Amino acid sequence: MIGKQVARPFLQAIRRAHADAPAKYTGQTPTSFVQDGWASADGWASARLPFNVRNRYAFAVKAVLFLASGIWAPFLVVEYQLRKANQ
C-alpha cells in the first residue's frame, strides 16, 4: 500500500516531465539539405555556439591554447611544488 502511494506519484511525475520534440520532424531525402531544426539558426550550424568559429585560424589557435592548458596544467603545478620544496 505504501509502495503504491510512493511509486505512483513518482511515475506520474516522470511521465509528465517528458515533452514532445520542439521541432517537427520531416523526413530526409537523398538530395535535401540537412535540417537539424533547433541547431541551425540563420542557416549556420554554428549559430548557437558560445564562441565564434567562422574564422577557422583564430578558432584553431583558441582550441590549441585551451587544450594545451589542460594538458600542461599538472606539469606546471608539479614544477611549482618542486621549486617551492627546494627553497
From TrEMBL:
UniProt record, GO biological process: mitochondrial electron transport, cytochrome c to oxygen
Chain ranges passing through the membrane: 57-78
Signal peptide (residue range): none
Pathway named in the protein's UniProt entry: Energy metabolism; oxidative phosphorylation
Topology of the protein relative to the lipid bilayer: Single-pass membrane protein
UniProt xrefs under Gene3D superfamilies: Cytochrome c oxidase subunit VIIc
UniProt keywords, alphabetically: Membrane, Mitochondrion, Mitochondrion inner membrane, Transit peptide, Transmembrane, Transmembrane helix
InterPro entries from the UniProt entry: COX7C/Cox8, COX7C/Cox8_sf
Entry similarity comment: Belongs to the cytochrome c oxidase VIIc family.
Protein name: Cytochrome c oxidase polypeptide VIIc
Origin species: Steinernema glaseri
